[in-house]
Amino acid sequence: MYLPHGYLSCGESHDTVVRLTLDLLHMLRHSPASQIQTLLLYGPRGSGKTALAAHLAMVGKFSFVKFLSASSVVGRSSLHKMEAIHAAFSGAFSSSSSSSSTDLSLVVLDDLHRLVEFMKVGTQITVSHELLHTITTLLTSPIPTGLRVLVVGTLTVEEGVALEDPQFLGLPNLFLHHHLVPLLDCDATLSFLNASNIHKFGSGQFSLPSNLLVSVRQLHQAIQCACVHGSCSSDHREPSVVRQDHLLDCIMASVTRCGLTDQDTPH
Fold it and tell me: Helix, strand or coil for residue 165?
């Protein structure tokens, strides 16, 4: 559900987040003390935050995983959402207490803005204080003896916004670790394309605008678009062949709202 195309390397920035989080898991797993570690992944919409969290869930060898997204509680009352959040943490605590000393539990709070009913109109920001208080309490309360839990939250904000900005809702103060998950630049896009097994682009060197910024979602859509023009499979894990001009046209069509102009030069 969260990795419909599998996980593909998106360049050094994304790989660094994975590497640092795996180091955090190693430390947590071998710590003599009970711990709850918290990680906030933030960045622009579509930059791959949810995919990163899902990838960590798959490779982290957790004994318990609970992925709580806003879409899973859409249309429910604030009380129901508070109960769902509390149940996610209770499940992690129960699983850890009945597992071996090296087992870890994972709770993912995906799209925190929507979970706490965040709205911004002009400079006015409103949230459900009950939901925000529930998350704050669960993240800051002492945990039972013998537990090791990792909590990952994802938050959509534009690049360049300071952690102190009101739209962060003070969440960086609740999470011990925070990592920016950026949009893909030119080098990261080429890394993604190489990992996708779309390895033949026709004649010539494949070129992209030097100031390209594209989301993971847009790139998946561009690959699928290019495959419509060719004979390749839309399953990015299978080796495929597309024409360079088709793929480049689809990528550029996907990012026309990202500020690229006719004067941008490929490299």
Answer: coil
- Whether the per-residue pLDDT at 127 is higher than 70: the answer is yes
Task: Give the Cα separation of 195 and 202 in Å (integer).
Answer: 17
Q: Is the separation of the CB atoms in 152 and 178 below 8 Å? A: no
Q: What ranges in the chain are assigned the alpha helix state H?
A: 12-29, 49-59, 78-97, 112-115, 129-140, 186-195, 216-229, 244-254
pLDDT at 115: 93
The CB density around residue 186, as the number of other CB atoms within 10 Å, is: 18
Nearest alpha carbon to residue 113 among 130, 132, 133, 88: 132
User: From the CA atom positions of the chain, what is the Rg in Å?
Assistant: 20
Determine the Cα–Cα distance for residues 12 and 222; give it in Å rounded to an integer. Answer: 21
Q: What pLDDT shows up at residue 258?
A: 47
* C-alpha span between 258 and 253 (Å, rounded): 10
CA distances from 99 to 24, 43, 94, 149, 228 (A): 19, 34, 9, 12, 48
- Strand, helix or coil for residue 192: helix
| CATH architecture, range 12-180 | 3-Layer(aba) Sandwich (3.40)
- For residues 24 and 40, give the distance between their C-alpha atoms in angstroms, rounded to a whole number: 13
Domain ranges of the chain: 12-180, 186-254
Q: Which of 76, 60, 51, 75 is nearest to 25 (CA)?
A: 60
- pLDDT of 263: 38
CA angle 247, 252, 258 (to 5 degrees): 145
Q: What is the pLDDT of residue 157?
A: 92
Of 234, 219, 266, 260, whose CA–CA distance to 51 is shortest?
219
